[in-house]
Amino acid sequence: MSHPIMSEFDIVFAGGGTVACVVAGRLAAYDPSLRILILEAGQHTLNKPVHVQPYQYPFNQTPTSTTVTFNIGNPSPRLNGRAPIVPSGRCVGGGSCINFMVYTRAPVSDYDDWRANGWESENLISLMKKLETYEVQPGHPTHGYDGPIKVSSGGCKMGVSDEFIHVGTTYHKRQYADDTDDLETCNTYSPSQKYINGTTGRRSDAAHHYVYNQAHNPNLQVWDGKRVKRIIFEDKRAVGVEFTSDPVSCPDADQSSSIVRASKLVVISAGTFGSPGILERSGIGAEAVLKRCGIEQLVNLPGVGENYQDHNLALVPYLAADEAVTMDALWRGESILQESLAQWNSDRKSLIAQNGLDSKIKWRPDDEELKAMDAAFQPRWKEFFQDRPGKAVAIFTVLAGYTPPLAKPLNVLPRNYMTAGYYTLYPVSVGSVHIKVTENGKEGVDFTTGFLDDPSDIVPLDFGYKKTREIFRRMASYRGEVAAGHPNFPEGSAAVCREASGPVDLNAPDIVYTAEDDEAISQFHRDIVQMIGHSLGTCSMKPEADKGVVDTRLNVYGVSNLKVADMSISPLNVGTNTYSTALLIGERAAIIIAEDLGIDCI
Questions:
Q1: How far is CA 474 from CA 172, 334, 360, 479, 508, in A?
Q2: Could you tell me whether strands 299-300 and 284-285 are parallel, antiparallel, or unpaired per DSSP bridges?
C-alpha cells in the first residue's frame, strides 16, 4: 500500500481510524473497482508488535507515544483547576489498534434512543452479528460467528478475576452469568471477553481485518502521515481534500499542501476531535467560531463541535500477593517476558495474548446502595435509570496489574498490583471541541470537556470507590492499598490506606466514612478522573434544528457529496466501551454509501 501517483479517486476518506477502515474495507469488498483513498495523519500499524501483541496496549499511552493524540482540555474548576487529558487514536486503525481490547456491547435501547431512521436496534442487531466471530461459546442468538472481528477470552486466565467474581456474587449479592453482552443483561458479574483472536493470539482491530487483508486490491489505498486540512468545494459540492504531510509522523517532510479529488464522495472520518476541526477549517460551523479563526463561512452549522461526551473513569491501585498472576512483570520487561513471547510464538497463548481484564459487572445500585448515595444523584436516577433496567450506571472491573491514571501516574515499586477500574456510562455533563488561533498565530484546539460539571456525575464515582474498595479488601490476593493512589484521608480516619497481610473476612463490616472522608473522596476524583477514550457526539446525527450536523444518511447539512462516519455522529452516550459502537457505525455507513452509489452489498 505505497503511495501511487494518482490525483483522483472515487471516494476519499479524511481520516483512517476504526470507522474509516470498516467502511473502506467493506466498500472495496462490495466493488473492487472502486478507487478508494484513506488519508491518515498517523502511521501504518501493519504487523507492528505494539499494535498486534495484546499485552503491549499500555505502551501506546506513554507520554512519548506517537500512536495517540493527547487532547488537552481547558482547565476546569470542577477538576480543581486541572487541564484534563483525553487520548485518541492516531494511527491507521485508530482506537481499534491502541485500545484496551475490552469487549462490551451497549443495550439495544441506547440505539433506539437516538430516534434516527434506519438506526433502530431492529436494523442494527444483524450488523452487530455480521461484524464479529464470537469464539467464546457457540449458539448465542445475539452473537455472530462468521465476522471479521474475533472475540475470545484471551491467551490465559487471570486468577484475580475469579476472586472478583466470587466476592461480587457473595458479599455484593449479585448474580453471575457467562455472558452479559447479550444486549440486555445487566447488574450481573461475568467474565470480560476481549477483542483478541483466540487462534492467533493477536489484537483483532479494524485495520488488519478490513483493510490490510485486501492488500491485493490496488484500488484501495492508504496514505499514512497525511494531515487533512480542509474539504474542497465547488458550489457547495465536496470534490476533494487538501492535505499536508503530518509534522509528527513526517517531521522532515515538505509541509506544502496537496489536493486529491473525489469524483463520487468525501467521507470525514477523523474522530470526535478531528472531524469537527476539518469541517470548521472548511467553513462549516458556528459563525462565532469561524470568525475568531478568520475563516469564511460556507454553511452556518452551529452544532459542529458541540455535544462532546465521554465516560468518566477512575483507576485505583491495590497491592497484590506475590503469588498472584498479574501483568506487572511483563510490562516491566522482566524475564517472564521472554518466556511468554516464546510460548506465544509457539501456541499463541500466554500473557502476551492478555490485557489483564477478565471480569466485570455492569452495575446498577440496589435500593440499599441508592440510599447510601448522595442525594444529588436521585433526580438523575429517577429521570433516566429507574425505568430502564437494561442501562447500567457504571462498569466495575479488576485489572491484574498497575495501570497508572493519566493525571497522576505513580512510580511504584517492582511488585504485583491490581487496579480497580470503575467508569460511569451516562454522565450528564457535555463539552465542546473547536479550532482556535493561539497567541503565536498557529491553530490550536479549544476543548472544554465539561467533566463533572453536573453535580450528579461525581456521585456514582464516589460510591464506586467505596464499593470497589470493599470488594478488593475481600479478594484473596489483596495485600492493601497503594496509599498514594487513593484519597488523602485525614490522620486517624478508619479509611486511611495501608499495606495489609491479607484480605478481611467476607462478612467483615464495611469501612465507615465520615463527612471529611467523603470530601477527600470527592476531591480525589476531581484530581484524577479521566476519560477513557470513548469520546463522541461532536458531529451529531440529529435534526439540524437540534444542533445536528449530519442526517440519518450521514450527509452533512447544507452541502452535497460529504458525509461524516465515526463516533462523532453518536448523538447520545452509549453504555459500552465504544469500539463495538464504532464497528457498528462503520458497518451501517458502508451499507448507506453502497446504497447511495447503487452498489450491491448483500
A1: 11, 29, 16, 10, 9
A2: parallel
In 3D, which of 327, 325, 307, 276 has the Cα closest to residue 101? 327
Cα angle at 71 between 65 and 73, to 5 degrees? 145
CB-based contacts of 248, cutoff 8 Å, min separation 6: 41, 66, 90
DSSP 456-501: TTHHHHHHHHHHHHHHHHTSTTEEEE-GGGS--PPTT-TT---B-S
**C-alpha closest to that of 100 among 111, 84, 85, 87:** 87
Sign of CA dihedral 113, 115, 116, 119: positive
The dihedrals phi and psi of 68, each to the nearest 5 degrees, come to -130, 160
Length reported for the chain: 602
Q: Which helix (H) or strand (E) holds 287?
A: helix 287-292
**Cell numbers that stand for 165 in this block:** 467474581
Residue 119: phi and psi, rounded to 5, are: -110, 15
Is 434 among the residues known to form the active site? no
Per-residue CA distances from 169 to 73, 185, 190, 214 (Å): 39, 15, 10, 46
Average pLDDT, integer, range 289-310: 98
Quick one: how many helices (H) and strands (E) in the chain? 15, 23
Residue 355 has pLDDT above 90, yes or no: yes
- Cβ(557)–Cβ(587) below 8 Å: no
Question: What are 257-293's pLDDT values in tens digits?
Answer: 999 999 999 999 999 999 999 999 999 999 999 999 9
* DSSP structure string for 374-385: -GGGHHHIIIII
User: Using CA of residue 174, residue 177, residue 180, residue 185, what is the dihedral sign?
Assistant: negative
Of the pLDDT bands very low, low, confident and very high (cuts 50, 70, 90), residue 440 is confident
Residue type, 147: G
- Contact by Cβ (8 Å): 293, 436: yes
Query: What does the pLDDT look like over 523-570, one tens digit per residue?
Result: 999 999 998 889 999 999 999 999 999 999 999 999 999 999 999 999
Q: What CA–CA distance (Å, rounded) separates 156 from 162?
A: 13
Q: Which H or E run includes 563?
A: strand 562-564
- Of 172, 311, 525, 534, which is the active-site residue? 534
For residues 442 and 448, give the distance between their C-alpha atoms in angstroms, rounded to a whole number.
Answer: 19
Give the separation between CA 451 and CA 307, rounded to whole angstroms. 12
What pLDDT, on a 0 to 100 scale, did the predictor assign at position 183? 96
Residue 602 has pLDDT above 80, yes or no: no
